[in-house]
Amino acid sequence: MAGLQSILPQLTAKGATVVGISVDEAPESKMLRGALKLEFPLLQDQDANVAASYGVRMRGESMAIPSVFVVTHDGTIVWRHIGEYVPDRPTPESVLEAVTGRHHEAAQPNPGSQE
């Protein structure tokens, strides 16, 4: 999330809206948002239902696989990065490229998800 914060001005200049979604409880999410100085909302998904709908809920857990999605206004996923492990995050540059349309990756089912 810190990586997204670092490019927030460029993303918003391109018309993108950044929203984080956390399966953590509200006090932990609030602390994380403050610690990372996030200027975008961090929404709650305590039951991991949103994570499950995006195919990134860890099997048998109420946790989400670290992921970033670029979604168009009509709800089409045009790019995504699904982490292989907790610190596996996309580079800010790759997210910016996805938003500007210079990099598109087909959305594939995630084998580690609970779909």
Summary, kept brief:
The chain is α+β, with helices and mostly antiparallel strands and 115 residues long. The protein has five helices and four strands.
Describe this protein's structure.
With 115 residues, the chain is an alpha+beta fold. The chain has a single domain, classed as Glutaredoxin (3-Layer(aba) Sandwich). The protein is 30% helix and 15% strand. It has five helices and four strands; from the N terminus they run ααβαβαββα. The chain has a two-stranded parallel ribbon.
Blueprint of the fold:
Elements: H1 2-6, H2 8-13, E1 20-22, H3 26-35, E2 42-44, H4 49-53, E3 67-71, E4 77-82, H5 92-100
Parallel strand pairs: 1-2
Antiparallel strand pairs: 3-4
Order of helices and strands: HHEHEHEEH
Q: Briefly, what CATH class?
A: Alpha Beta
- From the spread of the alpha carbons, the general shape counts as globular
* Number of E-state strands: 4
Helix content estimate: 25-40%
How does the helix and strand content classify structurally? alpha+beta
With strands numbered from the N-terminus, the spatial order across the biggest sheet is 1-2
What is the count of DSSP helices, taking H or I runs of 4+ residues?
5
Fold-level CATH name: Glutaredoxin
Radius of gyration, Cα only, in angstroms?
14 Å
Share of residues in strands: 5-15%
Oligomer state equals single chain
- Sheet having the most strands: 2 strands, parallel
Give the full name of the CATH homologous superfamily.
Answer: Glutaredoxin
Query: Spans of 5+ residues with little confidence (pLDDT < 50)?
Result: 104-115
- CATH architecture, by name, is 3-Layer(aba) Sandwich
Arithmetic mean of pLDDT: 86
Cα-to-Cα separation, first versus last residue = 25 Å
